[in-house]
Amino acid sequence: MKGRRAIGIFDSGVGGLTVLKEVEKILPYEELIYFGDNLRAPYGSKTTEEILEFTLNIGDFLIEKNVKMLIIACNTATAVALEVLKDRLNIPVIGVIAPGSISAINLTKKNKIGVFSTPVTAKMNAYKNEIEKINKDIEVYQIGCKPLCKMIESEWEDTKENQDIIKYYVKKLPMEIDVVVFGCTHYPIIKEYFYRELKGKKFVNPAKETALEAEKLLKKLKLLNKRESKGLVSFYTSGNVNKFKKIAEKILGKPIKEIKQALN
Ligand code: DGL
After folding, report:
1. Read out DSSP for 18-82?
2. In this structure, what CATH number is given to the domain that contains residue 226?
3. Residue 29's pLDDT is what?
């Protein structure tokens, strides 16, 4: 019976859908509840106090929905609130930074990793600290990219000006790095624009590793959903429903029947 409850997934906006997509692939029978805090995005330029307050509210909202596990599909919220949410909630809580770090460590041959993230994630040294916990010899270069989340939330366009913004951040990375982490769940949405500038580098999208971590934990806790038909996915946003629908359908590549508004 316990396994039938949904998994809660949240982000500041549509970025966490890149994680939801992997969770749907790896755990197709699970019911999922996605919450995008589009009204308050971007988190990356807010204070840690504000981010903590938003995430605690979302945690409470998803607990009311009776979720059996919480996936923080946002690096910034993971950096700020993972430990607090783990302490506060009575269910397993996972973030994206530890899974992303492990993938990057496994991939690097030169022990030099670059991470693109929001300014908050970079300033908190979230990836550097996580990677150094496992291997102190690895150098981590963290680049905070202030405008990107907002631009992706309002539909990225393939223009020269936008490509120049990517170039500007790419130039900040030393070229000796061999692995690049998308340390913001919004960035895989525009991955090809990073690929253009960083040919020959290996990329990490922490989403897949996070979904595998969720699977491992649910198995261990005997909380997997035993059903054998596709699980329901419910969507909530604190922002504009039509705007969310348009961009979310593009990211997921399929129509979404219903999106509800909450916490607005
Ligand atoms: N998608 C988020 C992350 O992974 C947050 C982006 C933002 O709201 O600034 O960090």
Report:
1. HHHHHHHHH-TTS-EEEEE-TTT--GGGS-HHHHHHHHHHHHHHHHHTT-SEEEE--HHHHHHHH
2. 3.40.50.1860
3. 97
Residues 188 and 227 in one domain: no
The tally of domains found in the chain comes to 2
Instruction: Please tell me the distance from the alpha carbon of residue 255 to that of residue 249, in angstroms, as a whole number.
Output: 5
Verify whether ligand 1 is closer than 6 Å to residue 210 (CB atom).
no
Compute, in angstroms, the gap from residue 196 CA to the centroid of ligand 1.
22
> Range of 120's domain?
97-206
Confidence of residue 112 (pLDDT cuts 50, 70, 90): very high
Confidence class of residue 141 from pLDDT cuts 50, 70 and 90?
A: very high
Based on the fold, state whether residues 56 and 117 are members of the same structural domain: no
- Is the minimum distance from the CB of 149 to ligand 1 under 6 angstroms? yes
The identity of residue 89, as a single letter, is L
CA 78–ligand 1 middle distance (angstroms): 10
Q: Annotated catalytic residue: which of 41, 51, 70, 74? A: 74
Model confidence over 184-219: pLDDT tens digits? 999 999 999 999 999 999 999 999 999 999 999 999
Stated pTM of the model:
0.98
Q: Which atom of ligand 1 is nearest to the CA of 74?
A: 4
Catalytic: 149?
A: no
Calculate how far, in angstroms, residue 218's C-alpha sits from the geometric centre of ligand 1.
25
Q: Give the per-residue pLDDT at 1.
A: 65
User: Bridge-partner residues for 34, per DSSP?
Assistant: 9, 235
Counting from 1 in the atom list of ligand 1, the atom nearest the Cα of 44 is 9
Does 235 share its domain with 178?
Answer: no
CA 15 to ligand 1: nearest atom: 1
202 shares its domain with 215: no
